Amino acid sequence: MNPTVWLAGMVMLVADVTAISWVAISVALSIKNPNRITGTTVVRMLVAPWILYIAILIIIGMMIKVFGWSYEPKWPFFVGLWFGLGMVTDLIYGLMAWRKVKRNFRELALQRFTPKQSLLGRLLRRRGENVPPVIAG
């Protein structure tokens, strides 16, 4: 196995585990339904970079076929694209989640137990300030 691919995989593993843990904590504090926590985290951290990867490969394939682009990417391009998209995803989502948890932990933790206003109450509240809020039970 190529040492470059192995090294990129090891660095990506550590970055993914770190970012996924922070994103999962952030999502778990924000979402009330525990079944959606895993799905939301997986889509953000694992599916999103692969969708971008495939989209870029489709664009490159179209450039080669339609416009006669003479560039034929080799394996370092594909490894670099995979590594770059993965690291960018980890940094963006991971740092946003880390920042959200560090700054707003108490609000996020209490958000689950705070009663929300009903839709009717929110609509009436916007139209007139003298209308008492309607809280859903």
TrEMBL record:
Membrane-spanning intervals of the chain: 6-29, 50-71, 77-98
Top-level division of the source organism's lineage: Bacteria
Keywords: Membrane, Transmembrane, Transmembrane helix
Keyword match Transmembrane: yes
Full protein name: Uncharacterized protein
Organism: Pedosphaera parvula (strain Ellin514)
